[in-house]
Amino acid sequence: MPYVDRLNRVCGFLDIEEKENSCRFQRRYFILDTQGNALLWYMDNPQNLPSGASFVGSLKLTYISKVSEATAKQKPKTEFCFVINAVSRRYFLQANDVTDMRDWVAALNKASKITVPKPGPAPPRSDVTAVISDTQGGKRQQAYKTEIIGGVVVHTPIQDGGFRNYDSYNGNEDGRERKGNRPGVLRCGYCVKQGNVRKSWKRRFFTLDDNTVSYYKSEMVRSQILFFFFCISCLSLV
Q1: pLDDT tens-place string over residues 206-227
Q2: What is the maximum alpha-carbon separation in the chain?
Q3: Which positions ≥6 away from 204 have C-beta within 8 Å?
Q4: Whether residues 148 and 220 fall in one domain
Q5: Is pTM, for the whole model, over 0.70?
Q6: Residue 7 included in any domain
Q7: Are residues 151 and 93 in the same domain?
Q8: In whole angstroms, what is the distance from residue 90 CA to residue 64 CA?
Q9: What single-letter DSSP state applies at residue 74?
Q10: Looking at the domain assignment, is residue 117 inside a domain?
Q11: Are residues 145 and 102 both part of a single domain?
């Protein structure tokens, strides 16, 4: 069963199917590093490896949506197997026994649990703040209104009523929001949203531009969609 090391990390040996659906499991040493926001696995216990030996696999905890015991349909011939559902794929791991499996499932779910803070009292709708923004001719003052919508702080300029900035408790995967790196994108990063039918919270990749807020299952999915429409547009020009 897993143990806790001196750095308060959950550690232990597990077998992992490193290539999905290969049915070939490899023995690896796992470290659940909540401070580093990652699940790491090594060829062996790092204490037995040469100094400076790196991990052979990793998974960010923010990418994990659910950890559960594998069903007989998923892995009929693998005992004490559990599955990690991540953004891009599923990771199947085999524990030493049923207690070991359940301890790992509980530890991983606890480490990757999405906690949504209770929204505080909303500021008065007449709350107006003056901010300084750069212009080509110097600096000017701009007034905007602050509101809390679904637990997200939204600053709305009074002049045009459009979104110009936002913050969330989650931001991107390292806990901070970042500016969009493409023209027209004001902000992008990982946030959490609540489902309309199933009231569970899921991590999604959000983008904010001048007119809309969009979200995708992951940043990779967004890139694939943009590439698809780029190819379509190129074909239409031929």
Answers
A1: 888 877 888 887 777 777 777 7
A2: 71
A3: 190, 191, 192, 193, 215, 216, 217
A4: yes
A5: no
A6: yes
A7: no
A8: 9
A9: T
A10: no
A11: no
